[in-house]
C-alpha cells in the first residue's frame, strides 16, 4: 500500500543520489511535490527532478552546501515560497569521513560536524517556521551511531549519535504543534558510495542478521510511513532499518 501524501510538499536534503534520491522518488509516488538539495551532482539532481515530474508531481532542485547555514536556511525558505508550503523535511545530506582519530584534520572534523549535526538543526529550525499541524521532520542517521564495529568510525559515529538528542529534543518542543520528529538509522545500503559488491561488502553484510545490504527503496519505505498520517502518533523515535545490524 502506498502512503498517501497528496497535497504535501517535501524537502529532501542531499536528494540527488543514493538513499536521498530513493526517498525523494518514494515521497513523490505517494503524491507529494518534492524538492531536493545537492552540492555537486547537478546532473543527478536534474534526473531526480525529471523522474518526480514524470510521476505527475512538481519538483525543484536547489544547489546548497549543507556546511553553510545560510544556504540551508535559504533552501528551506525557497521551497516554502516556490512550492507554496512545506510539510515534510527529510534531513538526509551527510559526509562520511573515516580514519584513525589521530590523523583526522581539523577541517575534516569541522565539515563533518557542520553537515551531519549543524545542518539538520538549522534546517529543522528554518522548517519549524513553515510547518503546520501534521508537519514531519525525519532525519537520516546511521547504524554506526549505535554500533561502531570497525576502527576509524569515531568522528562519523559521534556525529550520527548526536542526532538522537536532536530528535528527542525537537519532538518535545514541536509536539504541542502537532509536528512529529523521528530518526531513521539505515544499516548498510547498496549505493554508489557503498556498493553491495564493494571490497568489504561481504564482511559488512555478515554483521547484519539478514546477511545482506538494504536497497534505498527499503529505507525510503520507512521514511514514507513516518511522513504519512498513519504515523501521526510516532515521535521522538529512533527507527533502525538495519537488517538486524544492531540486534
UniProtKB/TrEMBL annotation:
UniProt record, GO biological process: translation
GO cellular component: ribosome
Superkingdom per UniProt: Bacteria
Keywords: Oxidoreductase
All residue ranges annotated as the Ketoreductase domain in the record: 8-207
SMART domains assigned to the protein according to its UniProt record, in alphabetical order: PKS_KR (SM00822)
PROSITE patterns given in the database record: ADH_SHORT, RIBOSOMAL_S16
InterPro entries (alphabetical): KR_dom, NAD(P)-bd_dom_sf, Ribosomal_bS16_CS, Sc_DH/Rdtase_CS, SDR_fam
GO molecular function: oxidoreductase activity; structural constituent of ribosome
Membrane-spanning segments: none
Family as reported in the entry's similarity comment: Belongs to the short-chain dehydrogenases/reductases (SDR) family.
The protein's name: Oxidoreductase
Naturally occurring in which organism (per UniProt): Micromonospora deserti
Amino acid at each position: 500500500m502506498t502512503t498517501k501524501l497528496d497535497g504535501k510538499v517535501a524537502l529532501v536534503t542531499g536528494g540527488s543520489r543514493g538513499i536521498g534520491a530513493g526517498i525523494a522518488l518514494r515521497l513523490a509516488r505517494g503524491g507529494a511535490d518534492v524538492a531536493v538539495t545537492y552540492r555537486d551532482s547537478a546532473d543527478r539532481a536534474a534526473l531526480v527532478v525529471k523522474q518526480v515530474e514524470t510521476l505527475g508531481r512538481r519538483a525543484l532542485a536547489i544547489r546548497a552546501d549543507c556546511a553553510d547555514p545560510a544556504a540551508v536556511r535559504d533552501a528551506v525558505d525557497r521551497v516554502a515560497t516556490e512550492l507554496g508550503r512545506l510539510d515534510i523535511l527529510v534531513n538526509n545530506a551527510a559526509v562520511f569521513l573515516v580514519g584513525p582519530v589521530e590523523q583526522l584534520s581539523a577541517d575534516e572534523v569541522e565539515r563533518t560536524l557542520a553537515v551531519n549535526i549543524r545542518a539538520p538543526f538549522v534546517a529543522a529550525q528554518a522548517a519549524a517556521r513553515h510547518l503546520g499541524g501534521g508537519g514531519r521532520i525525519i532525519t537520516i542517521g546511521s547504524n554506526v551511531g549505535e554500533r561502531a564495529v570497525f576502527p576509524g568510525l569515531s568522528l562519523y559515529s559521534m556525529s550520527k549519535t548526536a542526532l538522537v538528542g536532536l530528535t528527542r529534543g525537537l519532538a518535545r518542543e514541536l509536539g504541542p504543534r502537532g509536528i512529529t520528529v523521528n530518526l531513521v538509522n539505515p544499516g548498510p545500503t547498496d549505493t554508489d558510495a557503498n556498493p553491495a559488491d564493494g571490497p568489504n561488502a561481504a564482511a559488512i553484510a555478515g554483521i547484519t542478521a539478514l546477511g545482506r545490504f538494504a536497497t534505498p527503496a527499503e529505507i525510503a519505505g520507512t521514511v514514507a510511513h513516518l511522513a504519512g498520517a498513519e504515523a501521526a502518533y510516532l515521535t521522538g523515535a529512533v527507527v533502525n532499518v538495519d537488517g538486524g545490524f544492531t540486534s
